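Suppose a classmate hands you a notebook page containing two proteins, each written out with its sequence and a corresponding row of structure tokens. How would you begin to make sense of it? This section walks through that situation. The first entry is reproduced here exactly as it would appear on such a page.
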Amino acid sequence: MAPKLHVRSYGCQMNAHDGERMAALMAEGGWEATDRAEDADLVVLNTCHIREKAEEKVFSDLGRLRPLKAARPGMRVAVAGCVAQAEGALVLERSAVVDVVVGPLAYHRLPTLVEEARRGRRVLDTDMPAESKFDRLPPRRARGPSAFLTVQEGCDKFCTFCVVPYTRGAESSRPLPAILAEARALLAGGAREITLLGQNVNAWHGAEGGLAALVAALAAEGVERIRYTTSHPRDMDEALVAAHGAIPQLMPQLHLPVQSGSDRILKAMNRGHTAEDYLALVGRLRLARPDLHLSSDFITGFPGETEADFRDTLALVEAVGFAGAFAFRYSPRPGTPAAARPQVDPEEAHGRLLRLQALLADQQARAQAAQVGTVARVLWERPGRRPGQVAGRSEHMVPVHMEGPADLLGRIAPARIRLARAGSLEAEPLG
């Protein structure tokens, strides 16, 4: 009987994608995926280190695995991802449950590490090798009409609140031929939409012309819908701005983190841009693509933030009008410059977060209400929650559901939006 593998990923889309690649890698060695940790011979916790709560959730989950492992002596537990990279041997010291610790740039060596663990060793691999892990991963096939494709890893920006440069390493870009080869495999497997992934995806420099050239090349290969995330304002060059208007396959939705609307806080964060820079960039993007929906990331309670700084953030949000956003209270990460600075009172930071979230939720609701009565081209991805329903996402990345036949699945087809609900749209067939 094949050994069973359970992978649990936390955090960003990059992590979710890495989790899928680890599962595929282990499948090459005969491992069979299971949704139940209770049935697994190997549990992989693919971790996120961006926020404190995400890190603590990992150790909580490790605690819950303890009785499972005691009941199944042959079970092995691996901690992968950014917590593994940041904490290294401390993970092994903190939890006796863990057999393998492997960083995000070394997970292509997971099969070897697991075999060592099955022989009774506790193993650690947090090297950041010069060779590309992607050259050592199995070929990919699409598992549905929408697929992720990693094109860039790492970050050189060193925002003062962020651990990514320390856990993912310096910015590196996959070469264009390798990306196109993987895209062709995904298309052959039924993918209609590809989302390009990277910590700073628009810093991709794998060919002349940057990300705009890559988007054009993918469109020429026949990719019907293209997205990319996560971008940085400093890397949004004019060619990429123009691509949003010139390449119809590039969807009218962009996640463009800003973090704060205060120039003083942006400088303290080492963001490398001002609020005016961001607003000017948004103006150029909307000139190129008037129907563009923007989302962003925000932090409240960053060290030194005053009420005036926070009001600047509210003013920026009002000026832009976001279709969605993620907002969090500042969480100090050990080893980052901001963690050593005087902290904002947690209750004050939380109060600001609630005010910001209320404004962002109102903007999202208004953006979705504006879609009612319009015709959306929806990529129908899966059955809906109720019998006879199909579900997918619009060009603007909004979940859509409607009563419709199953033969819509895997296709891009229009539907009329009839109702906006919290976080989703209800549609009806045309005609």
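The notebook's second entry, a different protein, reads as follows.
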Amino acid sequence: MKDLNINVQYITRVEGHGNILVNAKDGNIEKICLEISEAPRFFEGFMVGRPWYEISHISCRICGICSVGHSTASIRATEEAFGVVPSEQTIMLRKLNLFAEFIQSHILHLYFLSVPDFLNATSAFALIPNNKEAVLRGLKLKKLANDFSAMICGRHVHNLSQVVGGYTKIPNKTDIENILSRLEGALPDLEATVELFKTIKIPEFERETEYISLQSDDEYALYDGFIYSSDTGRHDHKDYRSLTNEFCVPHSTAKHAKANRDSYLVGALARVNNNFQKLSPLAKSVASELNFKPPVYNPYHMNTAQLIETAHCFEESIKLLSELLKKGLKDEKPNVKPKAGTGVGAVEVPRGILYHEYTYDSEGILVNANCVIPTGQNLENIELDMKKLVPEIIDKENEEEITKKLEMLVRAYDPCISCSTHLLDVEFKN
């Protein structure tokens, strides 16, 4: 029987600060937890009292990786509160912006955060001597995605032109043609990425859970749709609180969440499991090449699902950009009249489904805000994965190997811990 004393202070290659704690004595598990040690950032609090036209620009700063996603969820919440209906062109541009962000985020995670684990490297820098071509390919693909997003909304990080009601500036024909050409030219790099991942051995582990994502009858849902649970079916996006059920745990500054079970999973694996038939032909082909057959219950395959989604976003971007060029773009100036109301924006971002809910007064001043972030929704599920994994391998692997498996598990979720911290109600007593 084995003793374990694992204390990983600040997991590497994730966004934010989180610790892995595992204690076992004589093979008996005493403690397993993912400890979040960051302080809340109070975005909901300091958005209150600000006018409607500032909110998306503030909220997009919740995250530098999913800036577009936060901006989109924020804008959709405000539009619902005011009764604003965006144009078809605006919706097309927003979908393209999300595609761009998914590509850059997934490529960042796959090449620079996950791959080192599978190639026995400590970091992306350590990959360079033996895998220089792969590193350069990852950088090239990420730059393309960043340029793609900047073409649509001025810049990728903390976007400028995407606003309530539309865009303050639309991309020109030449820029669209350039990005379209670059996307088509990058398809061999995408195939090379698939070939790389075909050589990677994913750890064997399964834990079936509840999978929650957006779902639509018309498309692979990222921008719009119902909330779909693999357990309970479809729900209106306004009912998100009944599906998130946030709660506090003593070892974390971030809230956990649950729905029908003790935990649920959001993100690429949930989306692909729930919506596989709506993927593009290229994405389904990549899934076949990687022998991915949903439903998949192995959370390490979050990496595989991200690559499948990257292929989907490539193909759909090429399709949508071509359609925009064919239709031609019109300069549509936003026309927004604020009023009292409440709205909910539910949008998929790379790490899972994101919710923004706002209440405005009659002057368009924000009086209440609630943001539920994907990583916070995943934290309880990660812990339950850890609690199932450790007993399965404690007598088969040494402490170093167990530690690596746990770090890989957390990284597979691609957590954005800084975004996950939520405002807590604290009562101070003398």
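A careful reader of the second entry would note: The two ends are 46 Å apart (CA to CA).
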